Structures are given as C-alpha cells and as structure tokens.
C-alpha cells in the first residue's frame, strides 16, 4: 500500500526555483516538445538524452530526489509489465510468447518512453499550480475559439481533473487508515494486495461522485455558463528565461528528429 504514501502526481510542490518561476506556457511547450520527441522516434540514445535533460530540469526545480524516486517506484510494476509484454511479443510473426532480440529492443524502448511520459507529467504538475497550468494551456489554444472549439471548458475540465487527483489520493489514504483501524490487513504479495484494494474502491468511487456533484452545484451557484466570455485573474508575460526554454524546446525536437530513428 505504499502507492498512497508516495504517489504525488497532480500535486504542486512549492519551491523558489527557476522552473517554478517559468511562465506556464513556456513550461507546457517545453514539456510538449519532449513528449512529441519521445513519440516520433524509436531510438534508445534519444530516450537517454531526453531523460538526462529531464533530470537536469528536475535538479533546477530544487525538488527533493526522494519525491522523484518514490513516484517512479509507484509505477515500477507498470515498467515491468510493459517490458515483459514487448519482450515476449514478436511483431513480425504476431506470436506470443516469442523471445527475440527485436522484442528485447522494443521492451527497453517502450519502457524508456513510459518513463519519459511519467517524468514529464511529474515535473509539470509538481512545479505548476493547476490554475496556472490551465491558464497556460488556454492561451496558446485560444485561436481555436474561432472554430467554435470549447477551449474554456476544456481548460476547466483539465484543472478540475488535476485538482481531483491529490484529493482522491488523500481520500484513499484516509480510507486505508480507517480500514486498518477496523482490523483490515493490506499486506501480502502483489495479487493479494490488489484483491484487498477492492475494499477501498467502492467507498472511493462513491466519494468521488459526491465531490463531483458538490462541484457542479458550486459552479451553478456561482453562475457558471458554458460559452460565456471570461477574463483572466493572472496576466502572465514572457521573460528572457521563458524565451530560452522555448528555444530549447525547438532544439530538442531538431536533435531528436536528426539523430533518432522513426
């Protein structure tokens, strides 16, 4: 049950660093360039380059290393699962299980790709409050409003989803402690712990529905109407370091495309 103790995806970790002070638009574009590079290429060395770059950004953010290691340990089972599936699957003959050198290469590549995705999500969520992140994604997509695309609603849904993640984790942690106080045992191997998690899923599901209903009532009480024009409380402006990260985003795409194998 260490999942609830170490999982912090979607939570904001305040700190006085250059990454925290970046404009959320610059951070979103920089992280998007890394994610796009990981999707476009199939080269181990490019993934290692991206991971080294993300580690450098994480060090600049002055976040504790234990926070990163704890979150990666939470997803360790997923890394193993992805690696084993690609290791035993032969994409040419469509057979399973079939251990080949190609499967080994694919297992390493897709595991590293997953690590890049999780790393990007951690850096973006830990260094940017949900409200600023929603505003940062809203402004670059604002031209889509001319095509009647609901940009404001999309950013609101994303902000609510990000705010719900730590709330649900905290609720699950509270439920776990309550069940343990009543004599529940969550220890054992992976399969036993997974089966015992069912005790938490039902009350957690009911609690999330109740929170969603309360949120809808709160939005109605505050006069929220879909499609209405709204202003922004925060006025963000690009600084020199923001332009520097924008240039780095372009360089990441160029280097990945130049040296990576599609």
Largest sheet, if any?
none
Oligomeric composition of the shown chains? single chain
Q: How many helical stretches? A: 11
Q: How confident is the prediction overall: mean pLDDT?
A: 78
Number of strands: 0
Shape summary: globular
Supply the number of structural domains.
Answer: 1
Return the string of H and E elements.
HHHHHHHHHHH
> Structural class of the secondary elements?
mainly alpha
The percentage helix is 55-70%
Query: Uncertain segments of ≥5 residues (pLDDT<50)?
Result: none
Instruction: Measure the end-to-end span.
Output: 39 Å
Computed Rg:
21 Å
Determine the strand fraction and express it as a percent band.
Answer: under 5%
Give an overview of the whole structure:
With 262 residues, the protein is mostly helical. The chain has one domain (2-259). The protein has helices at residues 2-6, 24-40, 44-60, 65-74, 76-88, 101-127, 130-138, 151-181, 190-196, 198-221, 240-259. α2 packs parallel to α11.
List the helices and strands and how they pair.
Blueprint: H1 2-6, H2 24-40, H3 44-60, H4 65-74, H5 76-88, H6 101-127, H7 130-138, H8 151-181, H9 190-196, H10 198-221, H11 240-259
Helix pairs in contact: 2-6, 2-7, 2-11, 3-6, 5-6, 7-8, 8-10
Which properties best describe this structure?
mainly alpha, globular, single chain, 0% strand, 262 residues
